[in-house]
Amino acid sequence: MRLTFIPMDQSAAAHFRSGGADAYGNAPERFVSDGDGVPCRCCMRMIGSGEAYLLLAWRPFSTRHAFSETGPVFVHAEPCESGTPAEGTLPAFLERADYILRGYDTDERIVYGSGGIIARDHILDRAARLLADPRIASVHVRSSRNNCYHWRIVPETENPPA
């Protein structure tokens, strides 16, 4: 199965860069990166030392319900191009040993039993196995340390929203 990685979309990033409210109604906070551990959710690359970035609460779901989690995310303060890794590879910003993977159905609700902490080297295999389950429409990847949302994975055949 070929996988598609869906980063934060450009319209959401532009909203936050223009001072738009985050998931909790707050303006994004602005910082300057020291170059250590600040992954941009839009371009899926690390924010370099000396580059400005925004910290905000983001809910990557279309509606609010019990399973629509909110998490802290970083995004470049200046426009960056959406990025996805080459087929069969992971985004370069994944530097930790493991991550949370969790399957969601078409109503964006967690499919019980699908969640787990997965070693970095097994993310692609685990995501493909989860997406082979007809109950699972997408897989979310989150930090296993801080629960920060990273991106969504879908089968390549899905037409992701713009």
Characteristic terms for this protein:
162 residues, mainly beta, five-stranded antiparallel beta sheet, DUF1203
Kindly state the percentage of residues in helix.
Answer: 10-25%
Q: Report Rg.
A: 15 Å
Shape: globular
Oligomer: single chain
Notes on the protein architecture:
The chain has 162 residues and is mainly β. The chain folds into 2 domains: 72 residues, no CATH class; 66 residues, no CATH class. It has 2 helices and 8 strands; from the N terminus they run βαβββββαββ. The chain is globular, with a radius of gyration of 15 Å.
Q: What's a concise summary of this model?
A:
Pfam families: DUF1203. With 162 residues, the chain is mainly beta.
How does the SSE layout of this entry go?
Elements: E1 3-6, H1 10-17, E2 29-32, E3 52-58, E4 71-76, E5 98-104, E6 116-119, H2 123-131, E7 138-143, E8 149-155
Antiparallel strand pairs: 1-8, 2-3, 3-4, 5-6, 5-7, 7-8
